[in-house]
Amino acid sequence: MSNKVFKLSERVNSYLKDSFGCKHITIKGATKIAGHLMFVVLALCIYQSIKLLT
Question: Domain residues of the chain, as ranges?
Answer without folding.
Answer: 3-53
